[in-house]
Design brief:
The strands form 3 sheets. A 6-stranded mixed sheet has the order 2-4-1-5-6-7, sandwiched between helices. A 3-stranded mixed sheet has the order 3-9-8, sandwiched between helices. The chain has a 3-stranded antiparallel sheet with strand order 11-10-12. The chain is of the alpha/beta class. Mean pLDDT is about 85; it is low at about 25-40 and about 85-90. The protein has helices at about 15-25, 50-60, 90-95, 120-155, 155-175, 185-195, 220-230, 240-245, 250-260, 265-280, 305-310, 310-315, 325-330, 335-340; strands spanning about 5-10, 40-45, 65, 70-75, 100-105, 205-210, 235-240, 280-285, 290-300, 320-325, 345, 360-365.
Length: about 375
């Protein structure tokens, strides 16, 4: 279990170049003109986690199976997308199916690559995309609200709850603020998610900078980071051009290339970590001689539900979880050493799985 992240942005900001690098394919056509991506391209990528290789080494696992996440390359949005401009309706529908938005923002100067707005202004670009998402949400809610209001007036309690939440979102949207600033609690969280609002999606700003700024960013990316901090969003600096070059290199040569350009790791790693933090996801491991495998769950997940990610029968018949923290597994050089050190635990149904836990589930058939 990972998450589905839609890559959005204005045309010519580097979305498809980044997608190609992330998925190490040339499935998305990267070209210097708007709408070169007509159908959304989908790519599954492995989540890099050095802990998995370490655990596999200790357990002599024959196979490593990382958890995966999905990136969807969505064609460039333009001003008026909410009204169908630039194939906007099709693209907005694709965004609605994603769990989060990776908003690629152009943070570089290049006279050879045209900008659809005729200037380099990342904050204005963000406003353009955000406005189109909010306008689409506004139109959607205003259409859906009247029939629900009638049901609410007729005594339908559930309709009343939905109307109250919709009204709160409409207030934000009419004020020029995204729906994600709403703070639903309890059952309202489920209702809020069910509204399918585009501007409610968590946002990760990907600042696409020139190669010389790939390590620390530049003045443009600093402005985006400041905005992200004010919004409670996340921002990460990446050079799509460097990432595309890394993707073409053999794995053995990538470390030398990264060192030469002053980077400690590929941008993919930073994007994934930022995405995990954004969606509050964690990883646990199942380790054995046959395979070492990583699994992704939301933070706060209890042991039976974590088991259900592997198979629904594990959750239904859950008895207990054999648990060793990652650090204790490594320190003990495996399960036997962790047991001897008193770090092996049996946890029940109320146990909240921690990031890095190695787990073995006992369940009844």
């Amino acid at each position: 279990m990972g998450f589905k992240c839609g890559i959005v942005g204005l045309p010519n900001v580097g979305k498809s170049t980044l997608f190609n690098a992330l998925t190490q394919t040339a499935a998305a056509q990267a070209a210097n003109y708007p709408f070169c991506t007509i159908e959304p391209n989908v790519g599954d990528v492995a989540v890099p986690d050095p802990r998995l290789a370490k655990l596999a080494e200790i357990a002599s696992s024959r196979e490593l199976i990382p958890t995966r996440l999905t990136f969807v390359d969505i064609a460039g949005l333009v001003r008026g997308a909410s009204k169908g401009e630039g194939l906007g309706n099709q693209f907005l529908a694709t965004i609605r199916e994603c769990d989060a938005i990776a908003h690629v923002v152009r943070c570089f100067e290049d006279g050879d690559i045209t900008h659809v707005e005729g200037k380099i202004d990342p904050l204005s670009d963000i406003d353009t995309i955000e406005t189109e998402l909010m306008l689409a949400d506004l139109e959607s809610l205003e259409k859906r609200l009247p029939p629900l209001e009638k049901r609410a007036k007729g005594g339908d309690k559930e309709a009343k709850e939905v109307v109250d939440l919709m009204s709160a979102c409409l207030t934000l949207l009419r004020d020029g603020k995204p729906a994600r600033l709403a703070t639903p609690t309890g059952d309202n969280e489920r209702i809020f998610k069910g509204l399918g609002l585009l501007s409610s999606k968590p946002v990760l700003y990907v600042c696409n900078v020139e190669e010389a700024s790939a390590d620390k960013g530049n003045g443009f990316s600093e402005k985006v980071k400041e905005r992200a901090a004010l919004e409670g969003a996340v921002a990460v600096v990446v050079s799509a051009r460097i990432e595309s070059e890394i993707a073409l290199l053999p794995l053995a040569d990538q470390a030398d290339y990264l060192e030469a350009v002053g980077l400690a790791e590929p941008g993919l790693n930073r994007v994934i970590r930022a995405g995990y933090a954004l969606l509050n996801l964690i990883t646990y491991f199942t380790i054995g001689p046959k395979e070492a495998r990583a699994w992704t769950i939301p933070r706060g997940t209890r042991a039976p539900q974590a088991a259900g990610v592997i198979h629904t029968d594990f959750e239904k018949g859950f008895i207990r979880a054999e648990t060793i923290a990652y650090e204790d597994y490594v320190a003990g050089k495996g399960e036997a050493g962790a047991r001897e050190a008193g770090k092996f635990r049996l946890e029940g149904k109320d146990y909240v799985v921690a990031d890095g836990d190695t787990l073995h589930f006992r369940f009844a058939n």
